[in-house]
Structures are given as structure tokens and as C-alpha cells.
């Protein structure tokens, strides 16, 4: 089930966010990611969660003014079950979107390419996760 985030979900989302980022960005010192990062990094964003049996399996955080996918994480136990795709469909139901992806996060780059996302010329560097590129979905 995909539904809008509720305040009661924040502790479980914060744990998922912390674990997912430490697993995903394995080249970054784990201590650089903290539990309170979730609320700080998603402030003002629209958040949808995927839930199964009362447990949160994943979430998407969208900055709606730009339809920008700021965060998309799915618990490793639920990879390959279509949850990321479903979250993207729900989060971007109002139109095309964009996102930035760390170039070293090859699994995410491949995932977005499989779904038809296209690279733009925009590139940059994050002090935490390194080089990134912008992708768009029309």
C-alpha cells in the first residue's frame, strides 16, 4: 500500500533513511549520516510511503514546486518488488520530474535508466557523496 506520510511514521522513516544511506553510500564514513537527518532533509517536502503489514518498506520525498525527487529509498528486503517504481509513479502523478543521483550509486543509475529516465548535461559534486548527475522523466 502506498499512502501519504503521517507524523507517527517519522521514527520508522528516520531509521530507514539512516540505514539506507549508510548501505547505499558505502564509500562515505557511516558516522556522517545521523538519525535526525530525515526530518532536516525532508522539511517541506511531500512524502509518500510504501507499507506492508504495518511496516514501512520505502518512501519518496518530493519537492513539489519543482517536482524534484529529493529522496527515494526502499528497504533492501524489498528491492526488486516494484516498490521504487510505484513510489515514483505516485510521487510524480502530477507531471514530469527530475532528480540528482550520485554517479557512484550505480544501482540507482541503472534503476532510473530502466524506467526511462534520461541524463541531462547538468552535473555537480556533493561534499558528502561525490559527483552527481541530473536525470529527467518526461
Helix and strand topology:
Elements: E1 2-4, H1 10-24, H2 37-41, E2 46-52, E3 55-63, E4 68-74, H3 83-91, E5 97-102, H4 106-114, E6 118-126, E7 130-137
Parallel strand pairs: 4-5
Antiparallel strand pairs: 1-2, 2-3, 3-4, 5-7, 6-7
Overall description:
With 138 residues, the protein is an alpha+beta fold. Helices cover 28% and strands 36% of the residues. It has four helices and seven strands. It has helices spanning 10-24, 37-41, 83-91, 106-114, and strands at 2-4, 46-52, 55-63, 68-74, 97-102, 118-126, 130-137. The longest helix has 15 residues, at 10-24. The protein starts with a strand and ends with a strand.
In short:
The chain has 4 helices and 7 strands, in the order βααβββαβαββ. By secondary structure, it is α+β, with helices and mostly antiparallel strands.
